[in-house]
Specification:
Order of helices and strands: EHHHHEEEHEHEE
Oligomer: single chain
Structural class: alpha+beta
Shape: globular
Strand content: 25-35%
C-alpha cells in the first residue's frame, strides 16, 4: 500500500509475529504515563488483540499500525488512531517509538505525516486530536510541526507517581 509508505519507513497492519514487540511496549512501565496504562498485559490478551486486529476502523473504532524501517519488517514503533468518530469525522492520534536508538531520527515525524495524510485523504476525517502531557516537549514539538494547535489544558488530569499532571489537548483541522 503506497499510501502508508514514506522515504525511510512504512506503516503496516499488526501481524501475529508482533506479539513480543507489543507485549514489551505495553508492559514497559516507563511509558505507562503516555498510554494511560495501569496494569500489565498478558501475552494471552495481546494475542487475542492481534487476532482481532483485522477489524476495520469503522468496526473497532481504532486503527493501530506498526512503524517499520524501509529495509526491515520488524516493528520499531506503533502509531494509532483511536476514539474514531465517523459521525463527526474525527479521531485521536498517538505515536510511540519503541527504543531510544530509533528516536530523534525523523521516524516519528515521517510516520505522523503518513497517518495524517491517510486520515484526511483516505478516511476523509475533518480533524485529529492529540492528548499530550504539558511537560512532553518532544511530542509537543512533533505535533505542532504538523500544524496541531493547543486548544486547551486539562488541569490535574493524570495522576502520575502520586502527583497530578496537566494534559494539553491539541487539534488539527483538515483544511
Amino acid at each position: 500500500m503506497i499510501t502508508l509508505k514514506g522515504e525511510n519507513i512504512y506503516l503496516r497492519a499488526l501481524e501475529p509475529n508482533d506479539l513480543e514487540f507489543v507485549y514489551a511496549l505495553e508492559n514497559d512501565e516507563t511509558i505507562w504515563e503516555v498510554s494511560n496504562t495501569q496494569t500489565p498485559y498478558s501475552r494471552f490478551l495481546i494475542r487475542q488483540y492481534l487476532e482481532n486486529a483485522h477489524q476495520d476502523i469503522y468496526e473497532a473504532k481504532q486503527l493501530r499500525l506498526a512503524i517499520c524501517k524501509e529495509e526491515d519488517f520488524p516493528a520499531i514503533g506503533l502509531i494509532d488512531l483511536f476514539e474514531f468518530d465517523p459521525k463527526n469525522n474525527r479521531a485521536g492520534i498517538g505515536i510511540l517509538i519503541g527504543s531510544n536508538e530509533n528516536r530523534n531520527q525523523g521516524i516519528g515525524s515521517e510516520a505522523l505525516g503518513l497517518l495524517i495524510q491517510y486520515a484526511f485523504h483516505q478516511l476523509n476525517l475533518n480533524q485529529l486530536f492529540a492528548n499530550i502531557d504539558v511537560e512532553n516537549e518532544s511530542s509537543i514539538s512533533l505535533f505542532t510541526k504538523f500544524g496541531f494547535e493547543k486548544i486547551g489544558v486539562k488541569k490535574q488530569w493524570n495522576l502520575v507517581d502520586g502527583k497530578y499532571k496537566d494534559e494539553a489537548l491539541f487539534q488539527l483541522i483538515n483544511q
